[in-house]
Structure to design on (445 residues):
C-alpha cells in the first residue's frame, strides 16, 4: 500500500472502516466501539498520555532519528516547568496583564431567546469569549507559554506556521515582547484569504515566508527548516497534532480556557455546564475547553468539524474525526483524511483554520472511547451562524467558531428547558467579513 510521507511521518498504518456521522446523540456512559473497549468511567480515571506519549492507540513519536533527541529535550523541559512555580507565575502574569485573561463567559440572551420553543422554553446559551484576548483569539494562551519556555531553553529564534493568521500574529506579537527573532510560514492560499494578518505579522517584526499551497504545505516546509537549525531554533507549534510531547503541551497551555469556564459557571449558576461545544480543526481550541471536564461524566462535549460544501462523504470537507481513518501523520497516530492508497486527500472549508487533514491524537482517543461527540457543519450553515451572532448579539465570530455556533440549530431543539450550553468563540471574525459578504452576494446573483 502506498502511504503518505512527510518530514515528520512514517508510512501510514493499516486502515479502519471510515467513521459514519451519527444521526443521534451518544449519551450512553457504557458506550464502546470496535477500536476501543474502554467505558467513559475508565477514560476519566486513566492517565493520558502515557510515558511514551500515547493516548490509548493514538499519538506517539513516529519521527526520523534526528528528531528523537530534540523532542526528548523538549519533553524534559516541559515536564520541568510544570513543576516550576517561577515559570507558572511568569505565565500567569503574562496571561493576565498582556493577554487580558480571564475572558468573559457571556450569557447570550438574544441567541438564547432565538432558540426557545413555542412555549418559551429552551436551553441557556453562554459564549466563552476567547475572541476578546489580545490578538483576537485563544492562540495567545499557548504562544505566551511556549515562548517563555523557549527563552528558558536558551533559544533566541522562533519558527512557526499559521493558516488563519491568528497564530502567526500571536507568535509575532509575543516574539516582539520577548525580543525573539520570528519566522512565520504561511501558505499562499491563506495569504490570499487574509492578507491583513500577514501585514500585521510583518508590522510586528516577523519574517513571513510564503509557501505555495495551503497550511499543509506550509507546515511541512516549516518543519524542514527547523530540522536544519535544531540547536538554535525553537519550533512553536500552534496545533495539537504532531509527535509527543507537542499535542500534550499545546493542550496543557490552552487548558486555562476550561479552568476559567468551570470557575465562571460555578459563580454564575452554581454548577458545571451541561454541554460544551467547540469547533475542531486540529483540535487545540476544543481541547482547551474540554480537558478540564473530561472526568465530569454529566458534561457532554461536542466537537464540530468543517463539512465543506455539503454532507456527502464524497464531497470536499475537513472532517477527520467524523469521516477519517486511522493512520500516522506528522509524527503521530490519529484520525486523518486519506485515499485508498494511503495518500493524504484535499481538504476544504470556508474556515481556513479547519482545513487540516489530521486531528489531535487525544481527540482521536476521546472519540473512540465515546467521551466526545463529533459532528459536521457545512460552509453555508457556518456562514449563516456568523451573520446570526452579528445580528443578535453584536459579536463577530471567526468562521471557525461559527461552525460551533451553527450546530446550535440542530442541538437546541433536543435539549430540556434551562440546559446550560457553553460555546467556545475561539476567535474574532473581523477579517472574515469580506468572505462572508461575498458569499451572501453570490447567493443573491
Amino acid at each position: 500500500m502506498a502511504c503518505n510521507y512527510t518530514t515528520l511521518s512514517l508510512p501510514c498504518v493499516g486502515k479502519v472502516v471510515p467513521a459514519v456521522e451519527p444521526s443521534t446523540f451518544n449519551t450512553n456512559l457504557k458506550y464502546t466501539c470496535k477500536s476501543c473497549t474502554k467505558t467513559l468511567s475508565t477514560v476519566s480515571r486513566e492517565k493520558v498520555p502515557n510515558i511514551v506519549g500515547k493516548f490509548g492507540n493514538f499519538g506517539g513519536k513516529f519521527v526520523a532519528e534526528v528528531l528523537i533527541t530534540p523532542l526528548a529535550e523538549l519533553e524534559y523541559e516541559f515536564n520541568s516547568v510544570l513543576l516550576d512555580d517561577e515559570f507558572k507565575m511568569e505565565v500567569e502574569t503574562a496571561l493576565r496583564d498582556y493577554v487580558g485573561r480571564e475572558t468573559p463567559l457571556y450569557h447570550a440572551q438574544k441567541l438564547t431567546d432565538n432558540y426557545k420553543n413555542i412555549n418559551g422554553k429552551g436551553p441557556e446559551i453562554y459564549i466563552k469569549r476567547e475572541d476578546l484576548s489580545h490578538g483576537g483569539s485563544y492562540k495567545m494562551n499557548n504562544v505566551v507559554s511556549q515562548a517563555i519556555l523557549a527563552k528558558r531553553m536558551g533559544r533566541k529564534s522562533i519558527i512557526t506556521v499559521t493558516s488563519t493568521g491568528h497564530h502567526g500574529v500571536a507568535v509575532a506579537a509575543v516574539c516582539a515582547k520577548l525580543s525573539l527573532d520570528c519566522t512565520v510560514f504561511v501558505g499562499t492560499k491563506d495569504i490570499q484569504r487574509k492578507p491583513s494578518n500577514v501585514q500585521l505579522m510583518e508590522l510586528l517584526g516577523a519574517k513571513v515566508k510564503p509557501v505555495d499551497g495551503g497550511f499543509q504545505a506550509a507546515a511541512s516546509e516549516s518543519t524542514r527548516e527547523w530540522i536544519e537549525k535544531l540547536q538554535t531554533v525553537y519550533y512553536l507549534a500552534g496545533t495539537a497534532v504532531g509527535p509527543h510531547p507537542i499535542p500534550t503541551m499545546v493542550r496543557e497551555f490552552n487548558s486555562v480556557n476550561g479552568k476559567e469556564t468551570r470557575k465562571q459557571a460555578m459563580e454564575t449558576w452554581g454548577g458545571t455546564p451541561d454541554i460544551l461545544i467547540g469547533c475542531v480543526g486540529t483540535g487545540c481550541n476544543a481541547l482547551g475547553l474540554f480537558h478540564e471536564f473530561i472526568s465530569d461524566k454529566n458534561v457532554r462535549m461536542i466537537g464540530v468539524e468543517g463539512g465543506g460544501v455539503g454532507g456527502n462523504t464524497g464531497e470536499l470537507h475537513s472532517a477527520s474525526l467524523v469521516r477519517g481513518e486511522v493512520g500516522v501523520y506528522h509524527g503521530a497516530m490519529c484520525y486523518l483524511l486519506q485515499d485508498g492508497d494511503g495518500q493524504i486527500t484535499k481538504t476544504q472549508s470556508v474556515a481556513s483554520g479547519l482545513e487540516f487533514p489530521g486531528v489531535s491524537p487525544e481527540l482521536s482517543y476521546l472519540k473512540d472511547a465515546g467521551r466526545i461527540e463529533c459532528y459536521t457543519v457545512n460552509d453555508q450553515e457556518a456562514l449563516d451562524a456568523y451573520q446570526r451572532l452579528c445580528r443578535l448579539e453584536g459579536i463577530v465570530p471567526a468562521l471557525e467558531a461559527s461552525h460551533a455556533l451553527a450546530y446550535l440549530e440542530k442541538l437546541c431543539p433536543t435539549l430540556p428547558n434551562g440546559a446550560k450550553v457553553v460555546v467556545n468563540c475561539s476567535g474574532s471574525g473581523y477579517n472574515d467579513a469580506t468572505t462572508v459578504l461575498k458569499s451572501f452576494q453570490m447567493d443573491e446573483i
Summary: The CA atoms of residues 24 and 373 lie 10 Å apart. The longest helix spans residues 85-99. The longest strand covers residues 181-187. The radius of gyration is 20 Å.
